Amino acid sequence: MGRALRLLVVEDHEDTADLLAELLGARGHTVRTAYTAHAALELSAHHTFDIVLSDVGLPDSTGYELMEKLHALYAMKGIALTGWSGELDVERGKAAGFSAHLTKPVSMSRLESTLEQLS
Q: Is the pTM higher than 0.90?
């Protein structure tokens, strides 16, 4: 594992968000979770994050819109974690500011290597 990162996990399925945060925390990262885009923006206003890992389908916005805001406000890097894997989805993610696009279900080894590449 590379250096410990400050991560923001944004996922509306609470069990998934909590499990991912627990797994990443066990690997030495500091992780906060948000279940909505609004909560992610609130956390980002009060905490510094190295990378956001965000689902694209959120109940109050899209992960694309969230990434655009986080990138503009904080120059934050992001990883899209989504079930949408088409070429247009990947391109839309890049345009929004995501540095990587991982399709669910994602292995922890793939996620860790992506985090290391971005850190």
A: yes
